[in-house]
From TrEMBL:
Principal EC category: hydrolase
Entries under NCBIfam families matching the protein: aa-his-dipept
Entry keyword annotation includes Hydrolase: yes
InterPro entries: Bact_exopeptidase_dim_dom (IPR036264), Peptidase_M20 (IPR002933), Peptidase_M20_dimer (IPR011650), Peptidase_M20C (IPR001160)
Name of protein: Cytosol non-specific dipeptidase
GO cellular-component term (any): cytosol
GO biological process terms, semicolon-separated: proteolysis
Protein family: Belongs to the peptidase M20C family.
Organism: Sulfuricella denitrificans (strain DSM 22764 / NBRC 105220 / skB26)
């Protein structure tokens, strides 16, 4: 990336790719940025929860102008293709430049939100840029809980306007986002030993594209957990199946790409499973031809030591619950055509040594609707005899079409690019809702470059759109400096 322009933005992004920054493991990157800022004479603050705030005084003559906050998050979603050896706590992200895009071929790239962070850092060191007082708020653990924004103390921020740099569609100003809440489900299953004459098998769903559980949920891509459960449900009707274990998904905010189960059935029936799997796969390939053409289903003997299966009653309980649990788009927006209003993603499931757990991510542009759908998932689990509860709720960001910052940004965008920007809300969780709760005076807007495949391996960011974001950010800051 060293030859890409704008050089300063890509240099910072290269640093973010080199320093591992999974959620809850941002300390090394934060320490590096503190040293970088101190070297430039930029003041630093780490708040009580671990957020990093960088401050630079206004340019000469602009001291009376209200301060501006640029905001992003330090962490990234960590996903890798099956068979890819990558330790996200120690290994650098490997990137390639191809056809105008920077890509991580076998892992997530971290352009969400590394490019936003890089843009803000580049603005702090840009020579000759005329600007008001600048603050850069870099939060921690956005991807797995929004803990940084949630823990930001009131009155921490001094600026009056905030530019969030965490959206992924160039040419759009975002002025609202979905809120969200997690649902956790647990159940302790009774176990029993396997009868003699049973064969151990492994059933795996793979080859799916996955994606962001908010902005990609409307695309109709396959959910590996849902497909695995559908297949297990059918197998349990055909054979005397004994479920032993199950695993699928790695993050509640990513559409699961892979899932597998280990089970036993009479050895005499095992020979039929390969043909059954191919027959089962045929309609899936037809159904997902346009969105997940590489979906795969494989069933083969398992060499792990024989363990205990869960009792038939618990097996039926789990499969029936997962087969009927909410997943996908629940409602589209009346106010914003083509935008998802409310959705649910079955993101993680595990059954290990009789202990079952599942995690759902519920989102909505209306907080009450997210709460209602989450309550429905909790009630459904309870009616199936399982424990369930809501956790990690965060508010949405209510649009303000009369925002002075939005008006100014529209003027600048038209001046720089000769056409108006589109206005949009996003079916994903930006930190703006939580920041508005702790700092209600802030006037906020969000924009960013074109990013594809966030939260999934193969994530990429368009080089040209990064340059345009940089052009826009500098022009907006200079306009704000001029009042």
């Amino acid at each position: 990336m060293k030859n890409l322009q704008p050089h300063s933005v890509w240099a910072h992004f290269a640093t973010l790719c080199a320093i591992p920054r999974s959620s809850l493991h941002e300390a090394a990157l934060r320490d590096h940025l503190i040293a970088w800022a101190v070297n430039l004479g930029i003041s630093t603050q780490v708040d009580a929860v671990g957020n990093l705030i960088l401050r630079k005084p206004a340019s000469s003559g602009c001291e009376a102008m209200p301060g501006v906050i640029m905001q992003g998050h330090l962490d990234m979603v960590c996903q890798a293709n099956s068979g890819t050896q990558h330790d996200f706590e120690h290994d650098a992200i490997q990137t390639v430049v191809r056809d105008g895009w920077v890509i991580a071929e076998n892992t997530t790239l971290g352009a969400d939100n590394g490019i936003g962070v890089a843009l803000a850092l580049a603005a702090l060191e840009e020579p000759g840029l005329i600007h008001p007082a600048l603050e850069v708020l870099l939060t921690i653990n956005e991807e797995s809980g929004m803990d940084g924004a949630r823990g930001l103390a009131p009155s921490t921020l001094q600026g009056k306007t905030l530019i969030n740099l965490d959206t992924e569609e160039w040419g759009h100003f975002y002025l609202g986002c979905a809120g969200g809440v997690d649902v956790e489900v647990r159940h302790d299953c009774a176990q029993e030993g396997l009868p003699s004459g049973y064969a151990l098998m492994r059933l795996e769903v793979s080859g799916l594209r996955g994606g962001h559980s908010g902005i990609d949920i409307h695309l109709g891509r396959g959910n590996a957990i849902k497909l695995l459960v559908e297949a297990l449900h059918e197998l349990a009707e055909l054979f005397n199946l004994r479920l032993i274990g199950m695993q699928g998904g790695t993050a509640r905010n990513a559409i699961p790409r892979e899932a597998f189960a280990v089970f036993a059935l009479p050895a005499a029936d095992a020979a039929q499973l390969e043909a059954w799997a191919q027959q089962k796969l045929t309609p899936w390939r037809k159904h997902f031809a346009k969105v997940d053409a590489k979906v795969s289903l494989a069933c083969e003997p398992c060499n792990t030591p024989q363990g205990s299966s869960i009792l038939r009653a618990d097996q039926n309980r789990l499969l029936d619950f997962l087969n009927t649990a909410a997943n996908g788009v629940a409602r589209t927006s009346d106010a914003f055509p083509g935008v998802t209003d409310t959705s649910c993603n079955l993101g993680v499931v595990a059954l290990e040594q009789g202990v079952f757990r599942a995690t759902f991510k519920v989102r909505s542009l209306h907080d009450a609707r997210a709460d209602t759908l989450a309550d429905e998932v909790v009630t459904h689990a309870a009616s199936s005899g399982m424990r369930a509860w809501k956790d990690g709720a965060y508010p949405g960001w209510t649009p303000n079409p009369a925002s002075p910052l939005l008006d100014l940004c529209q003027q600048v965008y038209r001046q720089e690019f000769g056409q108006p920007a589109n206005l949009q809300v996003i079916h994903a969780g930006l930190e703006c809702g939580l920041l508005a709760s702790s700092h209600p005076h802030l006037d906020m807007i969000s924009f960013g470059p074109d990013i594809r495949g966030a939260h999934a391996p193969g994530e990429s960011v368009e080089i040209e759109s990064v340059g345009r974001c940089w052009q826009l950010l500098k022009a907006v800051l200079q306009r704000l400096a001029n009042g």
